[in-house]
Design brief:
The structure is a homodimer of 319-residue chains. The first copy, chain A, is an alpha/beta fold and 319 residues long. Helices cover 53% and strands 13% of the residues of chain A. A 7-stranded parallel β-sheet of chain A has the order 3-2-4-1-5-6-7, with helices on both faces. In chain A, helix 2 runs antiparallel to helix 6 and helix 4 runs parallel beside helix 5. The radius of gyration of chain A is 21 Å and the shape is globular. At the A-B interface, helix 3, helix 6, helix 7, helix 8 and helix 11 of A face helix 3, helix 6, helix 7, helix 8 and helix 11 of B.
Chain lengths: 319, 319
């Protein structure tokens, strides 16, 4: 079925939720031509939203905090979209998160929109799909886009690093500050949140974190450390204040905007190439060129680098 | 400094550890020409090693189990290499793991080699670097290559999925089986290990897992569930037996070999393109083409998809 992009964009402007969901599906998994058309139509309308990346290990209460932040932003009459990048199926994390936000009395509130995106199943990966989903949500007029993802994994780190402001959620008993460092994102976050601050060990975690930050050189950009109990809504306004403070920090918005654009362009280009390479037919008619080459590599008939060179050469000639 | 690939390969054959380390550095971060030469020289010598992927959330005792498995394999006089894919710096995970293995009386044992690879800092990412590091270790004559990585993240899942046998490590109290599913790799593992089986909740975790597996359809390929206490070496031989059983399962080795070759070729090709795209100079002489395009995207002068198309077109013309 062909996608009627102009009709979807017009419906989006009218606040049509189904059009929004459809456009997200197109940029995540659609044909290259359709994605190209959607991005061309929506990019001029985007650029207003604030993008907040929220990350942390499983079990720290990331989704609960995201839901609480969405609620606090709604209380300020901001329109909020949540993009939950879930390494498992779209059914689990995102649906749970949607339920949590609805529990906070935002049922039928069209100022909140939750979208779950599976990390698997995207041909070219998150690096292309996530920035385009953010673009669609931005163009749909949301003031804040909260991108929630687990804090480990190279692709996931890249996605969060492209946000305007990044939040790393920690919790006592879920590993110490050293493990937070191992989560891979310690250099990136603007705000550290110690969630479950009513649990034992929160004070120790906070002081470990502070010592760690004292060792680094941050200048004006030193990350904030905020404690909260997201499940009871305690400290959530303080988390939001810390995010606001960083978002308005001199110069950072422009710098992040260009970095985000760079990541999006590179992600899209890489995905276009990857789709092209995967789909390239074998000249001898045995399925795809990639599968035929992989078989020869496995049989030691050619080495993988030479096979990659051949594959690229063929793609370049065909494209 | 130019890399003398033939000399390094000759030294590798002589069992020179420094040559091995150097070759790993070349395939991970070297110039494209050097990587190409190393792969061409080593691929014909590789293909004998068994590759075991070991994954799990932070805190489940993944590194401890990996060290214990390495010890058990050494006791069988197998030569073992460990590739620790660490999302943080090369200093933490890998060094710790090395210490643990050495503590098990393998100090100065040249049948064990530990290499840590940071998930960040590779231009084209893990998808290219990890398979090439495995290739080098395979060509160096190790019987088993244990690839240890945190169980979340799209790139990390791809790396582990390319192993001959995959092990997912869980622990009681670190989240239930549903969280294991959220770790994103539940469809992949051949062996589930419940580590810290002496802790309360191990029985419940095992039965949750079994119920979950009962719901799926696996045929002959049903994953094993094994309990152990890696820190005391209990159950480690059973884990190894489960790995051995899966590795010898009919047909699986050939299938995995081709899949691994496919992942390696695609990873290398994607990285070659990515390096090319990142390094492409701007025709107007203002740094790189990518940065110039990103700036125009950020200023809304061009949309990111059109920018990606332009970048690819220029790269194709130049290459």
């Amino acid at each position: 079925v062909a996608v009627d992009v102009p009709a979807l964009v017009a419906a989006l402007d009218g606040g049509d939720r189904r059009a929004l969901a459809r456009l997200l599906t197109v940029v995540e998994d659609g044909a290259t031509e359709d994605r190209r058309a959607v991005v061309a139509a929506l990019h001029p309308r985007a650029g207003r939203a604030r993008v907040v990346g929220i990350t942390g290990a499983p079990g720290v209460g990331k989704s609960t905090l995201t839901a609480a932040l969405a609620g606090a932003l709604r209380a300020r009459e901001r329109r909020v979209a949540v993009l939950a990048v879930d390494p498992s199926s779209p059914r689990t994390g995102g649906a749970l998160l949607g339920d949590r936000i609805r529990m906070q009395d935002h049922h039928d509130d069209d100022g909140v929109f939750v979208r779950s995106m599976a990390a698997r199943g995207h041909l070219g990966g998150l690096a292309a799909a996530a920035p385009l989903a953010v673009l669609v949500l931005d163009a749909a007029g949301f003031d804040d886009v909260l991108v929630e993802t687990v804090g480990v994994g190279q692709s996931e780190i890249e996605v969060v690093a492209a946000a305007d402001t990044t939040v790393l959620v920690l919790a006592p008993g879920m590993g110490d500050a050293v493990q937070a460092a191992k989560a891979g994102i310690l250099e990136v976050p603007d705000v550290f949140v110690i969630n479950k601050a009513d649990h034992g060990g929160a004070g120790r975690l906070a002081s470990e974190l502070t010592s760690m930050l004292d060792l680094g050189e941050h200048g004006e950009e030193r990350p904030s450390v905020v404690r909260c109990v997201a499940v009871r809504g305690e400290g959530v306004d303080e988390v939001l204040a810390a995010i606001d403070a960083r978002a308005s920090a001199r110069g950072s918005a422009a710098r992040r905007g260009a970095a985000r654009a760079r990541a999006a362009v590179l992600g899209i280009a890489s995905e276009v190439v990857r789709r092209g390479l995967v789909g390239l037919p074998d000249p001898d008619g045995r399925g795809t060129a990639l599968d035929a080459l992989a078989e020869r590599v496995d049989e030691r008939g050619i080495d993988p680098f030479a096979a990659a060179d051949l594959l690229l050469e063929r793609w370049r000639r065909d494209a």
